[in-house]
Amino acid sequence: MIRKGKLVKNTAIALAIISVFGSTLTPVSAAEIMKSSTVITQYVDGTYDIKAKLIKDTSNEDSMANGYLKSTKIQISNNKIYMIMKFTSGSLLKELNPRVNGEPVKGTITTDSSDDTKTVKFEINSLTDNITLGVKINPFGSFVVDADCRIKVEKAEIPTQPTNPEEDDDAVTSPTPNVPSEDENDKEEVNENEKTLNTVLKHETEDKDSSANRYLESSKLKTVGNKKYIVMNFNSGNMFTAMKASVNRKEVETKFEYDEKSDIATVEFEISSLEDEMLLTFTYNTPIGSMTHSARIQSEIATSEDEGDITPPSNNEEDKEDDNNSESEDSNNGSSSNNNSGNGSNSGSSNSSTAYKNGYYQLKNIVHIDNATGYQMVRNLLSETTNMEVKNGKTYITLRMSSYSLMKDITMKVNNKTVKFTKNLINNDTVEFVVEVPNLNAKITMGMFVTAMDKTVDFDITFNKESVKFISSNEEPTIPESNSGSANNDGSNSSLSNNSNNNSDEKVENTTVKGKLYTIKNEIISDSATGKQMARKYTSSTTKIEEINGKMYATLTFTGVDLMSNHKIYVNGSLVSHTITASSSTSKSIRFAIPNVNADIKVQAYIIPMNATVTYGVKLLEDTLTFVKDFTVENGRLPQTGSAFGSEMLLGLGGLLTASGALLRRKRK
């Protein structure tokens, strides 16, 4: 604590200095003298939770690293202040380097392999310090992202030392936050009620549903006094780092919270009525950086019918007949149920179909996994649509997955109990798993070894009971392709294979002819710092230039081809043919014609773990052009020039870019 006597003395000294030296000493000097007298003993020793987040070093936007921040604490001990930050997905975080007021400080790093977390602890002077953190993230393979971010403390309540009553007049302590007591809150009674809403998220500019609907868990209208609030819950909440609402084209105060236990993100904001023009903007992290997505909100009060159980339409007479003859009817309900007879021995299934009659239904599933990158991968492999068959009091769930050739050692549990399941191959790369569940409250846990990742992935699946739709009493519906299929399967871009047969314009070359060989350095051109770093890592900085019979050819070499496929080259805005001059399991060299070294070159490649197509520029640095040698090779074949045959299919990321970080189903010719 600071005593008044000492404070007055320091102030007198400061003023005396100013009076002697006049304007040669700025007023801030006196303030600094007073500030230096503050001591940490005003705080009570202990460890306290605070609210903090990581923002970009150049703006107030959330940093990519903020998606990994689990908690922040302040520890007061022996007149020192320590900041303790805990991160999820610790295995992906290779380095955590704190700096305080521009100076590096020593951070103590601890890891917990049981929940894959990593903690950094370091000393600070005060919560008003300029605190930054350098984070090195390794989201997949050998790709590393360096994120420099600032630590923004949003809320911190740390108790102060109690003062001696005899010294109250002399003591100066830090202010204690004014928290209203329950008695104060009870002075005015405020009426509050809630109503369930039917909410649809629409595309920001087009008249179609937003893909963000898949995350919308529930919504309600909360009325407090004469104010109305929209409250929306989103599953897979760990993906989201921030949400901001606009009402009638004006940003409004938005409350955003994340519950780690349920993995639910909640957003709440005030409206005047449900007729307002509402827009919600999401910020979320992917392996290629922080992304934003906006969706319009359309809500209406749910009726009692909307909140009830869903049963297929039928009249009473048919219902009675179905009950009396269920065995004979079910025997004609399709052969797929026969495959289910040995699907496992889940007990308690007799209660599974109390709300549903015999027949086939479809509903949406929800994926639960402890990190955003893993979520994206699983979500893209597993079709969001699930089939449900109700038969003889039992319920069978059918899950459809793509890229089956990349999986092995598949296991399945229902409510944490290992069960048997039926595997039905649709084709070489698509499979359906059928398993019995006691009811739609069941949790399915799947485990599989993904060969492309060289690791085992475990995740949970639950079901959105509100999405159940009756399809047929005797015909099983078809499950749509996995979430990546429709977006990425309309052209050769969707191939996981690096085989040159996937592109009719790739011609494996054996020899060349007379010419001159040069080397030249190149520079990566990209609007995204993360994209530029990734492209530089996997594109050789040296380009080979050949002059052959008056024509010029450039050869780019790419590494990490186990993570990429379907390279395309654009020269001065046009897609051109290319020749593969060398190929191995880790690298590929591609040669193509250019008019000169000043040509505008762009590379497009499909990044397998991201399930995304990236495009970046390659600028040849003319002043680095170096002659190597003359060469002659007989019977060589020159690469074709001009535009490639066939149509060019564009791969969109779509919706919330939920395919980021996922594996794509292998394209079969």
Q: What does this entry show, briefly?
A:
The protein is mainly β and 669 residues long. It has 10 helices and 39 strands. Helices cover 12% and strands 45% of the residues.
Descriptive notes:
With 669 residues, the chain is mainly beta. It folds into five domains: 37 residues, no CATH class; 120 residues, Sandwich (Immunoglobulin-like), CATH 2.60.40; 114 residues, Immunoglobulin-like, CATH 2.60.40.1850; 137 residues, Immunoglobulin-like, CATH 2.60.40; 139 residues, Immunoglobulin-like (Sandwich). Helix content is 12%, strand content 45%. The chain contains ten helices and 39 strands. Strands 30, 31, 32, 33, 34, 35, 36, 37, 38 and 39 form a ten-stranded antiparallel beta sheet that branches. A nine-stranded antiparallel beta sheet has the order 6-5-9-10-2-3-4-8-7. It has a nine-stranded antiparallel beta sheet with strand order 16-15-19-20-12-13-14-18-17, covered by helices on one side. Strand 28 and strand 29 form a beta hairpin. Helix 1 runs antiparallel to helix 2. The longest helix has 18 residues. The C terminus is likely disordered.
Tags for this model:
12% helix, mainly beta, 9-stranded antiparallel sheet, 669 residues, Immunoglobulin-like, 45% strand, single chain
Quaternary form: single chain
Ends apart, CA distance between termini: 76 Å
CATH architecture descriptor text of the largest domain = Sandwich
Strand runs, count: 39
The average pLDDT score comes to 74
Proportion of residues in β-strands: 35-45%
CATH class call of the largest domain: Mainly Beta
Tally the helices: what do you get? Answer: 10
- In the predicted model, the low-confidence regions spanning at least 5 consecutive residues are 14-41, 167-174, 176-187, 305-354, 484-508, 636-669
How many domains in all? Answer: 5
Helix content: 10-25%
Structural class, judged by helices and strands? mainly beta
Main β-sheet description: 10 strands, antiparallel
Q: Rg to the nearest angstrom?
A: 31 Å
Look up the CATH topology of the largest domain.
Answer: Immunoglobulin-like
